[in-house]
Structure formats: C-alpha cells, structure tokens
Amino acid sequence: MIPDVTEQVALAEGRIIHEGTGKAIVGRIQITAEKGRILDQGRDKKGDHVPGKILQDGVFAISGQPEFLFPNLDSQSYELNLTISAESSQFREDVVELETKVIIPSGYNFDSPLKIVPEEIRFGMGLGLQGDLENGDFSQQLRQQFADNGILLHQNVTIWPKKGQDTWEIHDEGGSILYVIKKEDNSLNTYIPDISFPADPVDVRGRVVEAANPKMPIGNAIVEIQSTAGTQQATTKPDGRYRFKEIVVLTGATIHCSAAGFKPQTRTLLIDFSKLSNDEYFRLVSS
Predict the structure, then answer these.
(1) DSSP codes of every residue in 64-110
(2) Is this structure's pTM higher than 0.85?
(3) How far apart are CA 276 and CA 177, in angstroms?
(4) What does the alpha-carbon distance between residue 229 and residue 268 come to, in Å, rounded to a whole number?
(5) Is the CB of residue 74 less than 8 Å from the CB of residue 60?
(6) How far apart are CA 132 and CA 181, in angstroms?
(7) Is the Cβ–Cβ distance between 45 and 34 less than 8 Å?
(8) Looking at the domain assignment, is residue 72 inside a domain?
(9) What span, in angstroms and rounded, lies between the C-alpha atoms of 191 and 109?
C-alpha cells in the first residue's frame, strides 16, 4: 500500500539583514517555530523545532503542511510565532535573537507565500487610497503620504499586489522591495520589508592630514558621521587624530571631513562590525 503523501507548500517568506550593513548577516541563522514540522529541513535533536534555510542574500522561506498546522483554517485564522537566531562575529553576543509572527488569515489558500515583515508600523494611511493600490497606480496622493512621513520616493516606483492578502509591495525601478503596505482593520499600514538585526555600537577613529604632505596633521578639522541614526561630530586634536566612541552606525551612513583652507571630503562609511573599532583616514587637498 502506498502511504498518503501530503505536499508541503511555501507558507511565508522574508529577508533577514544586518541593520548596520543593509546586507545579509555573515554567520549562522536559524529559524524556529513553536509548532513541529513547520520548516523544510527536518527537526532538531529534540524534535520540537526546525531550522530554516537562508539564502546568501538573506532571503528565506518556510514551508510546511497547512492541513496539519492549521486544521481549521477554513473557519479561523492562526498566528505563527517565529524565533530567529543569529550567530555571527558581527555581534558581540554569542547568539542574538529576534521574535516575529505571521498571521495566517482564515481561508487563505497559499497560492503565494505570506510576506513576513517586522511588526513595527512605519506609518498608516486611510482606506481611501486602497483603490489606487488595487489599480497599481502610485498616485500623487500616495506619494504625498510617503513625503509627509519623511520618505521621498523615486518617480519610477511600482506597486506589486500579493494576491489574496490585502498586501501590496512598493518596488524601485530595479525590482527591489522598498516598503510593504498591509490592510489591517481600518488602516493601510506601511512597513519596512526586511527583518533587521540591530547593529552593535562601534568606535570610529582616524587621522586627518594634508594631502601634499601626509606627515603634516590638520588640527581642528570637523569630522561628521551621518546616518538615519542621527549626526555625530568630532574635532581633530593638534596631531590630526579624532575618535567616535560607541556610536550606532546604520546602513547608508556617510563620513564627512572639513577644515579651514582645505577642500571637504565626503564618502560612504562602511563598517566592519566584526571589529570593535574601525579606522577612517583623510588626506585633504588645500583649497
């Protein structure tokens, strides 16, 4: 007799990144759930939890058998609680954990996996804009809602609906997901699409010298680090050295250096979070 085979389907998908780099975490990621047989790589030794598979870009999907996990889905919704653990030299602690959840709406057929997004809402919008989303029209009214919340979007963004989920993804012209909009109760709530592990504080230090004579330090130069975490400023000592201690640096940060009589310099600040201190040096050209 051939045993019954129940097909596993993709239940939910998401992306895990490091808040400081904006990229996938370098290290080991494990996803566990409170239910058995929720992911597709087999159980652990205890038989209670299952590790999830993470791709190199941080994208992951969890799969399972809906009829076993959610037996009454025709008449009720379910909440799937997930714990994501990271072991990486990018963090000071041996293991860092985040918890998130996925709401499985009643009657959902899993034609496409549900999108896992962080639970923190960036901002909400009125249901009057739902028609624009359903029509795939990123209208001026939608654009203004983002602008009113400090987000200026490129002209060529597009709307991708998630079938049957009352969810829409906002993509840039390259196809990357910028934001996720979900209809919840009486609001269209906007979320950041990625699950971000917080960046540990780091030190940034360096020295500012003259480009024409690198042995000549520049004192009283102003060094600024700017990111969505805010602006940090330091002034060089007479030997040209400066130091930022225990600051939070987020993806997209820049470092800027200026001094009287010299041309300013600005560049992207790329932090190696496996180090407690990162070095940034400047050679300024006289103006």
Answers:
(1) E-HHHH-TTTTT--EEEEEEEEEE-TTSSSS-EEEEEEEEE-TT---
(2) no
(3) 31
(4) 15
(5) no
(6) 12
(7) no
(8) yes
(9) 23
Q: Provide the domain count of the chain.
A: 2
- How many whole angstroms separate alpha carbon 117 and alpha carbon 124? 15
With a cut of 50, list the residues of the chain below it in pLDDT: 1-5, 36-51
CB burial of residue 181 (10 Å; 0-12, 13-18, 19+): buried
Out of 96, 116, 136, a domain closes at: 116
Give the residue from 190, 178, 18, 23 showing the smallest Cα distance to 98. Answer: 18
Query: Rounded distance, CA 32 to CA 93, Å?
Result: 19
Backbone angles phi, psi at 144, to 5 degrees: -70, -35
Cβ-count burial of 157 within 10 angstroms (0-12 exposed, 13-18 middle, 19+ buried)?
Answer: middle
What distance in Å separates the CA atoms of residue 228 and residue 18, rounded to the nearest whole number? Answer: 14
* pLDDT for position 154: 80
Beta bridge partners of 161: 168
Which of 128, 57, 72 has the alpha carbon at shortest distance from 104?
72
Which residues form the domain of 230? Answer: 202-284
Residue 251 lies in a domain: yes
Please give the backbone phi and psi of residue 128, each rounded to the nearest 5 degrees, phi first.
Answer: -60, -20
Q: What is the pLDDT of residues 233-250, one digit of tens each?
A: 999 999 999 999 999 998
**Cβ atoms 139, 145 nearer than 8 A:** no
104, β-bridge pairs:
78
Q: What is the CA radius of gyration of the chain?
A: 24
Last residue of a domain, one of 97, 116, 135: 116
Asked if residue 169 belongs to a domain, the reply is: no
